[in-house]
From TrEMBL:
InterPro entries documented for this protein: DapB_C, DapB_N, DapB_N_CS, DHDPR_bac, NAD(P)-bd_dom_sf
Residues annotated as binding (S)-2,3,4,5-tetrahydrodipicolinate: H156, G165, T166
Gene name of the encoded protein: dapB
Main location: cytoplasm
Name of the protein this chain belongs to: 4-hydroxy-tetrahydrodipicolinate reductase
GO molecular function annotation: 4-hydroxy-tetrahydrodipicolinate reductase; NAD binding; NADP binding; oxidoreductase activity, acting on CH or CH2 groups, NAD or NADP as acceptor
Record flagged with keyword Cytoplasm: yes
One cellular component term from this protein's GO annotations in UniProt: cytosol
Chain ranges of the Dihydrodipicolinate reductase C-terminal domain: 128-264
PANTHER family linked: 4-HYDROXY-TETRAHYDRODIPICOLINATE REDUCTASE 1, CHLOROPLASTIC-RELATED, DIHYDRODIPICOLINATE REDUCTASE
Chain positions recorded as NADP(+) binding sites: K36
Length: 267
């Protein structure tokens, strides 16, 4: 059994990950971590996740449990994730990161630390979205100049970051397909007298509301027709299952920065 630690254990994702680790024949939960001052500290992680105790009390610092684990799964928030990756690298433990909203410098630091430990960093751990990444690149490459690319994502009202990490990754794949650097062509929302659309730009729009788990659509709009590729997640378990798969995959890998494409063999 692979001894697994979950950071963000009382969050929306963390609870589902703890629940599914509890049902998994290859993984066992040995640590659950939450933010200092959280009301979850000291509570039983099983009770939080499923209502049934598993004897794992939630701790307020990964450093307190890291030596008990073989792999860490982190779905928290950007600063917390960085703190956790540093601890994981100090203790030479592989880590799976699902957190989105990381800024450039944080990603650079994660890249640096991946020389020491294996890290899976993926904004979306569902199989469907990872297949969509490939499709989007392929369709963008095929349609190229005559079709305008727009991305629309919708998430629940509680989501902290925008655009979603998935929408950004979809935009990266689309940009790659048309041979452009996303940084030069991304447009995040539009307002006012913005003028005619530049043929190369990729528009990225974020909607928030209710309890939407995660919807992403990539639109290729031409004159006379449009192609729309959509993924809709209806349960967080699709991401949680992907995180478990990544944890099993990364545990015996050499140091490096890996994606879900690596985990799923889609490269
Ligand atoms: N890659 C993927 O497939 C997916 C990625 N995500 C991403 O995962 C992240 C979490 O999402 P979600 O579960 O919905 O968010 P939640 O806010 O429900 O959960 C995050 C949890 O992390 C906790 N946390 C914050 N700081 C720390 C810390 N320093 N140490 C330990 N725990 C901490 C939060 O505690 P508190 O509330 O007290 O701050 C909270 O319980 C987001 O970035 C989201 O975009 C989400 C779904 C799928
Ligand atoms: O915050 C969420 O909920 C989600 N976040 C990820 C993202 O930002 O892409 C993945 C998923 O869409 C759910």
């Amino acid at each position: 059994m692979i001894r697994t630690i979950v950071c963000g254990a009382s969050g929306k994702m963390g609870r589902r990950i703890c629940a599914l680790v509890g049902e998994d024949k290859d993984l066992t939960l040995v640590g659950a971590v939450e933010a200092k001052g959280s009301s979850a500290i000291g509570q039983d992680a099983g009770v939080l996740a499923t209502g049934v105790a598993n004897g794992i009390a939630v701790k307020d610092d990964l450093a307190k449990v890291i030596e008990e684990g073989e792999v860490v799964i982190d779905f928290t928030a950007p600063d917390a994730t960085l703190h956790h990756v540093r601890i994981a690298s100090d203790h030479k433990k592989p880590i799976v990161i699902g957190t989105t909203g990381l800024h450039k410098d944080q990603i650079k630091e994660i890249e640096k630390l991946s020389v020491i430990i294996p890290i899976v960093l993926a904004p979306n751990m569902s199989l469907g979205v990872n297949i969509l990444f490939k499709l989007v690149e392929e369709v963008a490459r095929t349609l190229k100049d005559d079709y305008d690319i727009e991305i629309v994502e919708m998430h629940h009202r509680f989501k902290a970051d925008a655009p979603s990490g998935t929408a950004l990754k979809l935009a990266e794949f689309a940009a790659k397909g048309i041979g452009e650097d996303l940084e030069n062509i991304a447009i995040y929302g539009r307002k006012g007298l913005v003028g005619q659309r530049n043929s190369k730009e990729i528009g990225i729009m974020s909607l928030r509301g209710g309890d939407v788990v995660g919807d992403h659509t990539v639109i290729f709009a031409g004159l006379g027709e449009r192609v729309e590729l959509t993924h809709k997640a209806s349960s967080r378990d699709t991401f949680a299952r992907g995180a478990l798969r990544a944890a099993k995959w990364v545990v015996d890998k050499v140091p490096g920065l890996y994606s879900m494409q690596d985990v799923l063999g889609l490269k």
